[in-house]
């Protein structure tokens, strides 16, 4: 389809997918970990008394 | 009104509602842009099919500059107003900017080999973009080197503003020096010189990349706000334990 330049075109799009896709995946995993840690910490917080 | 709108609570509430819409719009515009780039845009009369690389190379360069400009504005927000969202925005934008700059460098090298006969040449445009990547890497390293987010934000802001001097150099390098890289063909005072059948797919890809960058940036900002909340809760817990031990 892309004559003799196909390897350069395919490599360019593959690099884009690897870099931006990899970063996207990292962002999703990082947010899940932070969400989990935050939920755990918030359950450990002392409850405020309603009579205060 | 500004401070009421730009506070972490408001941001978390609204970004949570808007992000799915932005992600959907990104996918839709990106798919349209790819279709136009591969099936509607003609091959170039000189560069042939390698012109397909332009549709990711050029928008990546635009995003690298756009994110750095946004970081510079946030740096001013941190230094002048000490706005709580400004340094969160800066920190979230740095890896994104670095990633788009890296895509720009790699796709540029892969386009350069068949057209120029070399992957790399130390010309002004290529070198200044490499400097931009190194500045992004330096900013990310500085964020990690300082524990206190407030101090880190001020140090990073100064580095970001110093690095901003490179932006006009990148923009005008092709005019100021004799470079192998071609001069600007889209954003020109006398209008674009690129053939419309290639310009429209490029602009659609530009919009797709902008939507992608905004979506990923807002998502990363939400994560950073959670990280800061965790830090605050950990400090409170440590203080509580400390006071119990002291009693």
Cα gyration radius of chain A (Å): 23 Å
Distance between the termini of chain B: 44 Å
Q: What's the total number of strands of chain B? A: 0
Gross morphology of chain B is elongated
Order of helices and strands of chain A: H
Note the beta-strand portion of chain A.
under 5%
| 3D shape of chain A | rod-shaped
Largest interface: A-B, 29 and 35 residues
End-to-end separation of chain A in angstroms reads 74 Å
List the helices and strands and how they pair.
The complex is a heterodimer of chains A (52) and B (247).
Chain A lengths: L5 H39 L8
Chain B lengths: L1 H4 L2 H33 L13 H28 L2 H33 L7 H22 L3 H15 L2 H11 L19 H51 L1
Helix pairs in contact in B: 2-8, 3-4, 3-6, 3-8, 4-5, 4-6, 4-8, 5-6, 5-7
Describe the structure.
The complex is a heterodimer of chains A (52) and B (247). Chain A is mainly α. Chain A contains one helix and no strands. The N and C termini of chain A lie far apart (74 Å). The model of chain A has no long low-confidence stretch (mean pLDDT 87). By secondary structure, chain B is mostly helical. Chain B is built from eight helices and no strands. Chains A and B meet through helix 1 of A and helix 3, helix 4 and helix 8 of B.
């Amino acid at each position: 389809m892309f004559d003799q330049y196909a390897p350069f075109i395919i490599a360019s799009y593959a690099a884009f997918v690897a870099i931006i896709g990899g970063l996207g995946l990292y962002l999703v995993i990082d947010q899940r970990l932070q969400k989990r840690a935050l939920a755990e910490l918030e359950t450990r917080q002392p409850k405020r008394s309603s009579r205060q | 009104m500004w401070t009421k709108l730009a506070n972490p609570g408001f941001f978390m509430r609204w970004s949570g509602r808007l992000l799915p819409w932005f992600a959907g719009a990104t996918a839709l515009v990106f798919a349209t842009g790819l279709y136009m780039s591969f099936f509607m845009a003609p091959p170039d009369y000189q560069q042939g099919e390698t012109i397909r690389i332009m549709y990711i190379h050029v928008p990546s360069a635009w995003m690298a500059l756009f994110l750095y400009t946004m970081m510079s504005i946030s740096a001013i927000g941190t230094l002048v107003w000490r706005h709580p969202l400004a340094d969160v925005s800066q920190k979230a934008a740095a890896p994104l900017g670095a990633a788009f700059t890296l895509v720009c460098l790699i796709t540029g090298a892969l386009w350069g080999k068949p057209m120029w006969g070399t992957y790399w040449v130390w010309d002004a445009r290529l070198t200044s973009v490499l400097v931009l990547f190194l500045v992004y890497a330096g900013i990310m390293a500085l964020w990690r080197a300082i524990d206190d987010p407030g101090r880190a934000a001020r140090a990073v802001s100064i580095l970001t503003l110093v690095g901003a001097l490179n932006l006009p150099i990148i923009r005008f390098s092709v005019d100021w020096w004799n470079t192998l890289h071609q001069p600007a063909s889209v954003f020109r005072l006398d209008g674009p010189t690129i053939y419309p059948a290639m310009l429209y797919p490029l602009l659609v890809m530009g919009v797709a990349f902008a939507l992608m960058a905004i979506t990923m940036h807002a998502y990363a900002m939400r994560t950073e706000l959670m990280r800061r909340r965790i830090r605050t809760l950990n400090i409170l817990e440590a203080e509580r334990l400390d006071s119990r031990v002291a009693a």
